Amino acid sequence: MKQIALTGIKPTGQPHIGNYLGMIKPALELAEDYQALYFIADYHALTTVKNKKELEELTYQVTATWLALGLNPDDVIFYRQSDIPEVFELAWVLACFTSKGLLNRAHAYKTIVEDNVAAGREEDKGINTGLYTYPVLMAADILLYGSHVVPVGLDQQQHLEITRDVAMMFNNNYREVLVVPEAVIRKEVMTITGLDGRKMSKSYNNVIPIFAPANQVRKQVMRIVTDSKRPEEPKDPDACNVFAIYRHFADRDAIDAKRQLYIDGGLAYGDMKNELYELLETTFSAQRNQYNALMEDRKELDKVLENGAEKARAIAVPIMRKVRKAVGVTGAR
Ligand code: TRP
Question: Which member of 6, 68, 136, 280 lies 3.0 to 4.6 Å from 291 by CB, making a disulfide possible if both were Cys?
Answer without folding.
Answer: 68
